[in-house]
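[Q] Does anyone have a clean structure-token version of this?
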Amino acid sequence: MSESKVESFIGGLFIGALVGFIVGILYAPQSGEETRKIIKEKGIEITEKAKEKGEELKETATQKVEEVKEKAKEILKKKGVEIQEEEIK
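[A] Here you go.
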């Protein structure tokens, strides 16, 4: 599977789990206060996980950009085009 398909699958899996959790909580036989507390705790947990995933995706994107820059430099060098480091940022 390509990297984008894997990321899409993981994202879909995450959203499905979140929806399933919310539906389960709303239909669970608990008091409203308990339900709100659980939703709040899980909301914080999910937010933290989303931030972590965002950071991972940011790092991956940064790495890919650097790889593309290096490949572009190699191609330009093979073609005899001189570039300065400040030009590619």
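[Q] Thanks! Anything notable?
[A] The CA atoms of residues 77 and 83 lie 8 Å apart.
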